Amino acid sequence: MSGKKFNDPIHEYIRIPPLCVKIIDTPQFQRLRSIKQLGGTYFVYPGAAHNRFEHSLGVCYLAGKVTSTLRERQPLLRITDNDVLCVQIAGLCHELGQGPFSRMFENKFLPMVGETITVTHEKLSELMFNRLINENGLTAEFTKYELDEQDMTFIREQITGTSKTERRYLYMPVRY
Description:
Mean pLDDT: 85
Shape: globular
Number of domains: 1
CATH architecture: Orthogonal Bundle
Strand order of the largest sheet: 1-2
Distance between the termini: 39 Å
CATH class: Mainly Alpha
Number of helices: 10
Low-confidence stretches: 167-176
CATH topology: Hypothetical protein af1432
């Protein structure tokens, strides 16, 4: 895995996998450069200039580190290279559905324009992820890295999270 190096303000030089770079190079991902991580806070605190683009790169990098460390320290989990890549892609794409002015877009703007169902940025991120793949012809790239539909479902589930009923069962102790 060669990938590409990015200069991160927190982690210095970070390496991003080649498939993630293909995702980064899409218009859907590039739009995150102009969406502030802290919404309108920038107008009061000009140093709060972080954007969703650089945040997503950092999450991708850290997701890879955490998953790789788990694989190394917990071999019984049988975490594969594909699993690590899927977690990195989910970390990279988890903000795709964010609109301008952060949560205000989701909580105030969407309901005002007549959105009758509750739409979360997580659900919008999943929809944007699907669009990103389809409009940029990335299905072949995912296949090239041996990611199948099951892997795509795993990525989508990480982006959207789990429902409260599903969450209840995630932390139940294993009984032997």
